[in-house]
Amino acid sequence: MDNRIVEFIRGLRAAGVRVSLAESVDALHAIESLGITNKEVFRSSLRATLIKEHDDFAAFEELFPLYFGSGGPPLQNAMEDLTPEDQEMMQMALSALSGRMQQLLDWLSSGEGPSKEELEEMARRAGVEWANNQQEARWVTRRMLQQMGFAHLEEQMQELYEKLQEMGMSQEAIEKLMGVVEANREALAEQVAQQVGQQIAEQRAQRADDLHGSDLMNKPLQSLTEEDANQLRKEVQRLVTQMRSRAALRRKRGNKGKFDSKGTIRSNLRNGGVPIELKFKKKKLKPSLVLICDVSTSMRAVAEFMLRLTYELQDQVARARSFAFNSDMLEISVTLSGSRAADAVTKVLYDIPPGYYATDLGNSLNTFSKKFMDAVDGRTTVV
């Protein structure tokens, strides 16, 4: 179980959830203390120790059943309540079917279903190694069900129904048999979806550096789906969180500053010159940023994400001023500092409307030079 939990943590990290080594150890200790017999307690323990941000709950809820699920509901044996004569009729009826449909209906009637190895092989043929998200997982699942013959299952079940009637099986036995087969059909479809989801999650965990397994790095922003856009927003937030963590770590490491020999001597005169109390010089670094964002029509698909990054950078650096332009330059510092990220970005895009062939970089820079040059000095970095 420890190995499975470690794999789950890798999956969370691949999905963009920040899990530290200490939190991983806490999770293992919690499970060691509470056990795994109660699934809800097990789930709550992992969530409490591994998840810090509200936005990460969705990734946890998506991945938990893939790593710790039962593989989907079990199939039932539709043959066990049949008389020996009815079972023989069923076997004869199945033998009259074509190979693929015979195999599928045998799985659904016996309750055995395909093995894990058979499911993995079908998933490979369906292209699971190229799938990276839920939309593509559904596509792979459909391909696997087509391989099994699900597209013709309704028709074959009707033929089987009529064949059993002709062979003399009672109506009650046929109805009961078909009811179990129908339930098994839904259960098998769920098992297939579970298998695909688990394989994709494991693949994503092995490609943790690739925007948690997606193909966003190679996809034009203009062609992003809504799901892709939401994923990219999470990536921007993840990047900003890393920036904040690293900035805080630098401040923590830099608190002491350089050793101040003169200050140490003066401070310890009362101790007879013995350097009991050390003094350090704290160098105050005051970075200055000027952030300029292009929100013209051609850049509109990118503008939202860049404005979100601008918003977070301005929040991170005290001396930061933000600007955006299309036909002219507009300072947006106040807008970004006075609202939530989503609201601020919406207002900026509203205040600077798009317009084809309206971009005027020269005029925008001229306005910046005339009105906003006070934002730039020797320590300023213009982005």
Please provide a written account of the structure.
- This protein is an alpha/beta fold.
- The protein has four domains: 67 residues; 123 residues, no CATH class; 30 residues, no CATH class; 97 residues, Rossmann fold (3-Layer(aba) Sandwich), CATH 3.40.50.410.
- The chain contains 16 helices and six strands.
- Strands 5-4-3-6 form a four-stranded mixed sheet. The chain has a two-stranded antiparallel ribbon with strand order 1-2.
- β4 and β5 form a beta hairpin.
- α2 runs antiparallel to α3, α5 crosses α9 and α11 runs parallel beside α13.
- The longest helix is centred in the middle third of the chain and has 36 residues.
Pick out its properties:
4 domains; 383 residues; alpha/beta; 6 strands; 4-stranded mixed beta sheet; 60% helix; two-stranded antiparallel sheet; single chain
Number of domains: 4
Strand order of the largest sheet: 5-4-3-6
Structural class by secondary-structure content = alpha/beta
Mean pLDDT rating: 79
Give the strand tally. 6
Roughly how much helix do the residues carry, as a percent range?
A: 55-70%
Overall spatial form: elongated
* Percent of sequence in beta strands: 5-15%
Q: Rg from C-alpha positions? A: 31 Å
| Distance linking N and C termini | 48 Å
